Amino acid sequence: MAARRALVVLIVLLTAGGLGLLLFHVLAPGGWTLPKLVMLAAFLATAPWTGLCLANGLIGFLILTLCRDPVRAVFPPPPRLPDQIRGRRCPSLREPAGEPVGEAAPPTAIVVTVRNEDMRLVLASLRRLLNDLDAAGAADAFGVFILSDTLDPWVAATEGQQVAAFRAEDPDPGRIRYRRRIANTGFKAGNIMDFLDRHAEGFELMVTLDADSEMSAAALLRLVQAIRADPSLAIVQHLTVGLPAQGAFPRLFQFGMRAGMRTWATGQAWWQGDEGPYWGHNAVVRIAPFRAHCRLPLLPGGCHILSHDQIEAAVLSGAGWGVRVLPQEDGSWEANPPALPEFLRRELRWLAGNMQYRHLLLRPDLRPTGRWQLMQAILLFAGMPFYLLFLLAAATAAATDSISPFPMVSAFTAAWLGTLYAPKLLGYAEVALSPDKRARYGGMTQFATGAVAEFAFTLLVDAVSAASKTGAMLRMAFDGRAGWTRQNRMDRGVGWGEAARLLWPQTVLGALVFAGFASSGWEATLWALPLAGGLPLAIPLCVLTADRRLGRWMWRRQIAAIPEEISLHPVRERTRAAPVPALALQAQAEPD
Asked: What's the topology of domain 85-360?
């Protein structure tokens, strides 16, 4: 692993140095001024993350295109295991644990964490999984725990009734249990640790699912087989992709996320090995080491850690346990935000949690790779103010200074964006190079249409998101508080008034930025479009991508459709919208 990690560091340094040198030559003509110096400094502050994007994307792309079995290239193959997992019957409410049934297998708890959710959708997903396990003859190895942190008494009463009905209709009600905490101390991490302390007796493993998770039995059994094969592993994290969706925003988002995550996760797994990340859901966890090492400390000021997953992975690695990512995308899904407001709120929740990791970087029980995991989580958001600062300085420089001719500026922009979005772009290239993979997306024309639409969408949304995150970081810096807001999963439209109230700062900022570029001429304005075009367009972008009519139009034509939707899509009817397959119904309702 040392040589692999050295290669990644080399790629990051060469990328940062090369792009920095190119920008230096772009800005040098006419002499150095304060706006130009700010541009260079702001870019260099974002360069480590940009270099990491290229390193993970490039390594992942090469493995996916050149290796006959990419998964085995980064995840050591386990010894031969039985095709079907059977095991000691899981502890139930009516039977003692330990009754042997066939091939020995560790009893595994399927743990679903909920808080103020629409339980109809959560339970529908869980029912599909249980039916799938029953059909595979593997149900005896699994018990189900629905762990609620719902505090509202009325919501909790409805939730309990729905779970009771769900349990009553199950062929084996004893395998399903429901527990609600009166106080949600420690948030989701506290919820899971409370389960491990009080209710996990007799179980060796747990599979963690969020309220919006969806897993097939094949993917779940794949996880259990992988962790059984290697007693040194504490967590195996399955690659998770977006569910098919009818709304325009989640369709476009999940299409690009799938391409980028596949190359990123494969490349990262190659050089991180058994010191990989944990994303908190769609993963299998070995209970004993997790319970022993993952009790999270309070942060300065007595507050609880919001983002638990990365620190849990880092602590387990520091204790000598392995954490690996299984970069296989089939069978493991999650729902994506239905509209731009929900996406921005989710990003701000993650920002609040990830920035807390700065308090944990010097923990003595972490290894260097574990510290890097935390630093990487911080860098994911910490570069946003510098990106915005770069734009403001560039607009000022365009209005007041002389810089290199437009072609050279454009070459830098293309190189920067190509590097920053390398995982996604190389993920698209990987599909385009394979006839079989293109066919899974409906053919080259259909795939290319989705890729072009998604990339334009990403450029617009990322500028809006950068401004939102910068504002949140400034608020956190001044009042020192981090929030964990409620999450809406319901597919909905967004009105012009709501969009304007949320996004007027981005719109005003965009007007100011483009005023500076416009004063330098059309070439500078054209250069700024891929970097800042989403700012002045934030309000109409929000309304349009939440419009159900656009979503239905895209769904009927299968624009930005992923393989699961292609395989389930009924015969196309151009005159009316066909029903969305069950799998395409994202988890909705309230918070996480």
From this structure: Spore Coat Polysaccharide Biosynthesis Protein SpsA; Chain A (3.90.550)
